[in-house]
Amino acid sequence: MEKTEKTILEEIQGTVQEIISQIKELIRKGDAKRVIVKNRKGNVLLESRLTLGVAGAAVLAIYAPIFTAITTLVLYVSDVRVFVEKEINESSDEYEIDAEVIDIQDDEDEKKNDDPTDKTVGKKP
């Protein structure tokens, strides 16, 4: 089976703690490849790879300096944008949901179903 993956750049927004927790969650999931911090003009202030491998979830402490750098940049430079490059597997849809379709009848539908008049056009047999 062929492995088809694409990478996308996703902007992360929120408070400093929310940004850090979102990056940590992406690392735990294993689909984050790198984090990029840019200023308003688009210049890269920080870029770091996040690939950890299989044992990566247990060693998040290795990335403490990266989180510290991101925190410092976001706190002191208010016009930064944080991006995470992550892999998207084409075989699964990220926005896929399980849903149940239900039929809702309003009063007009019930009246139409209860109308006994024959609305046949033309001659009756």
From TrEMBL:
The chain crosses the membrane at residues 50-77. It comes from the Bacteria. Residues 110-125 have a biased composition (Basic and acidic residues). Residues 100-109 have a biased composition (Acidic residues). The keyword Zinc does not apply. Residues 100-125 are annotated as: Disordered. Pfam families: DUF4342 (PF14242). InterPro entries: DUF4342 (IPR025642). Keywords: Membrane, Transmembrane, Transmembrane helix. Residues 6-86 form the DUF4342 domain. The keyword Transmembrane helix applies. This is DUF4342 domain-containing protein. It comes from Rhodohalobacter barkolensis.
